[in-house]
Design a protein that fits this description.
By secondary structure, this protein is mainly α. It is 63% helix and 0% strand. The protein has one domain.
């Protein structure tokens, strides 16, 4: 039988692995091209559609 502590560690390890996989997929998708990268920056509100920084980031 698995102890509670071991079970918690296993779940945490699975969560970390899932996050790493998701982060890797996100990075590959959003850096696949200059167009994809810019689109993501616009979506996140970091740059405007014209490519300038938004006021929140010093633009």
């Amino acid at each position: 039988m698995i102890s509670k502590e071991r079970y918690k560690n296993m779940i945490r390890d699975l969560d970390v692995e899932a996050f790493r996989d998701a982060a890797e997929r996100f990075t590959k998708k959003t850096t696949a091209s200059k167009k994809a990268a810019r689109a993501q920056l616009v979506k996140e509100g970091i740059i405007t559609k014209s490519g300038k920084l938004t006021p929140r980031y010093g633009g």
